[in-house]
Amino acid sequence: MRRVIGLLVLVVSVAVVGSSVVPSIEAQDKSKTKAKEKEKVGTVEIYKAKDGYRYRVKGTDGKVLAMPSHARETKEDVAKDLEDIKTTLNKVKPAEVTD
Question: What is the rounded CA–CA span in Å between residue 99 and residue 97?
Fold first, then answer.
């Protein structure tokens, strides 16, 4: 009888501990993670410099990837330059140049 009661107490205590309020951990939703990775893009900033308007292209890490060699008089000129660059990059593949 003592063994039966001990076994019953053990089973009840395991059930209580097992069903205690432990927050469940949900699995990571990979589709949301992939969507966030796809959202990671750099930025293009148009700003006023001493000699006119310029742009800078920054990567996802915040480092500058590209800047123009000369300034433009208006923001619209900078925007046109950026559109030209975008069109060129979409249409051609990089070529290796040997000097």
Answer: 6
- DSSP-derived pairing of the beta strands 64-66 and 43-49: unpaired
Domains of the chain: 41-92 (3.30.160)
Predicted TM-score of the model (pTM): 0.56
- Give Dmax over CA atoms of the chain in angstroms: 97
Q: Over the chain, what is the mean pLDDT?
A: 81
Cβ within 8 Å of residue 46, ≥6 positions away: 53, 54, 55, 75, 78, 79
Give the count of alpha carbons within 13 A of 3, CB side only.
0
Polymer length of the chain: 99
Q: What angle do CA 52, 55, 60 make, to 5 degrees?
A: 155
Strand partners, 57: 44, 66
